[in-house]
Amino acid sequence: MTERPYIRPRRLRTTPAMRRLVAQTSLEPRHLVLPVFVADGLSEPNPIASMPGVVQHTIDSVRRAAAEAVEAGVGGLMLFGVPAAGDKDATGSGADDPDGILNRALSALRSDLGDSTVLMADTCLDEFTDHGHCGVLDDSGRVDNDATLDRYVSMALAQVEAGAHLLGPSGMMDGQVGAIRTALDDAGHTDAGILAYTAKYSSAFYGPFREAVGSSLQGDRRTYQQDPANRDEAIRELELDLAEGADIVMVKPAMSYLDIVRDVAEAVVVPVAAYQISGEYSMITAAAERGWIDRDAAILESLTSIRRAGADIVLTYWATEVAARLH
Ligand code: PBG
Global pTM? Predict the structure, then answer.
């Protein structure tokens, strides 16, 4: 007869109470941040076909969604602006216009919510440019790093003046955190923080986001976003962002990059965020719609796994729903 085990890990899995007692990773509403899209020129919210359940908001509807999210206890909101198609141009001039859609939405939410939540803004040009790139192009069509920094600085100042608590530079330009930090400090905005998109990979999983922001991207983002094959590069970007003054560092996407989340979490003492992006949302949603996976369980498992990998904060389109469910 085979020898009977006298060490039995199953003992700690016997009842829900026992499992709860020994659970290492927790998920609380405050850990979740809700990304929202606010579009100009809509009379009512516009469903995003490739992200069932997510919409492009009007200013009125985003006010309601934000109030609901805060009521559910989320840690914050990340705002993306979507100008009307005819208002996009080569330099993304809607981005730093105080009357641009993102800045108007920030002011509306800041006046509704004050400091009761943390308002974050995407500090990037791709939603505002007609070519869909995250920066301005030089004569040869290449994304011009340093000219783009000037645009980010102007955008960051407009966003803070509109009411953002944290700026989220997501364009992967070299020096973006330092340029924004210096400009904020020079303007006296020493309390405005930077949630840096530190390790942002060039990912196929951003697909549905393109529809969400009405982007007509020409080409791809491989000359500025990281190659999915690379791990060490994330640490190099991390060192730079910390040296340039990042307050929170982020890894994106999340689920295919949990090793990077872990690397970053082990390397720093600042809070680490991870972004469960559009394609991750859509994959789970689509499989669940087909009855292939249990939707609610898959959502919780995905978020718990991102936390387990080392993320303090998780951006997820399910933030309000999950926060409400966690009560
Ligand atoms: C760039 C930006 C993107 C996302 C967030 N910020 C798109 C990109 O880099 O291609 C993607 C978010 C998502 O897919 O949910 N402004």
Answer: 0.97
CB 159 within 8 A of CB 106: yes
Alpha-carbon gap, residue 81 to 44, rounded angstroms: 15
| CATH number for the segment(s) 26-249 | 3.20.20.70
pLDDT tens profile 56-93: 999 999 999 999 999 999 999 999 999 998 999 999 99
* pLDDT tier for residue 208 given thresholds of 50, 70 and 90: very high
User: Is 88 marked active-site?
Assistant: no
CA distance 34 to 38: 13
Block residue for tokens 């840690």: 75
Q: What whole-number distance in Å separates Cα of residue 208 and Cα of residue 159?
A: 25
Nearest residue (by CA) to ligand 1, atom 2, is 170
Q: DSSP per residue over 151-183, as a string? A: HHHHHHHHHHHHT-SEEEE-S--TTHHHHHHHH
Summarize pLDDT for 161-182 with one digit per residue, the tens: 999 999 999 999 999 999 999 9
Nearest-5° Cα angle at 231, 230 to 232: 105
From 31, 133, 200, 221, active-site residue: 200
251 pairs with which residues across the strands? Answer: 199, 274
Task: Please indicate whether residue 252 is annotated as part of the active site.
Answer: yes
- Is residue 280 within a helix (H) or strand (E), and if so which, with residue range? helix 278-289
C-alpha to C-alpha distances, 249 to 120, 134, 198, 307, nearest whole angstrom: 13, 19, 6, 14
Degrees to nearest 5, angle at CA 108 with 36 and 74? 45
Kindly tell me if the per-residue pLDDT of 1 is higher than 80.
Answer: no
The one catalytic residue in 131, 181, 221, 252 is 252
pLDDT at 274 over 80: yes
Q: Sketch the domain layout of the chain as residue ranges.
A: 26-249
What interface predicted TM-score (ipTM) does this complex get?
0.95
* Mean pLDDT along residues 269-292: 98
